[in-house]
Amino acid sequence: MGEVVGPRLYSCCNCRNHVALHDDIISKAFQGRNGRAFLFSHAMNVSMGPKEDRNLMTGLHTVADVYCLDCREVLGWKYERAYEESQKYKEGKFILEKSKIDKENW
Q: Which is nearest to 101 in space by CA: 50, 4, 28?
């Protein structure tokens, strides 16, 4: 069996566009709109929707929906601002929903 070459990636479940690196996962213990979600330090090949305030499980945050750059599938959101001091670590980070991404090069 051949060895896998290249980094372990996550891709859009709809079009297979690469959207995140496994090494950029901060936590797998997050909740998205449709179940489990991962917190990433970075995302790639995505675009952002308009910023809006949302009341999430951990309080009020300013977030922007994250879309696949190729097919426009909503993959999750980006934390733009956290109003609670204990949640500030999320600012600038990305939530990608497990149901919206697939593993590649595993």
A: 28
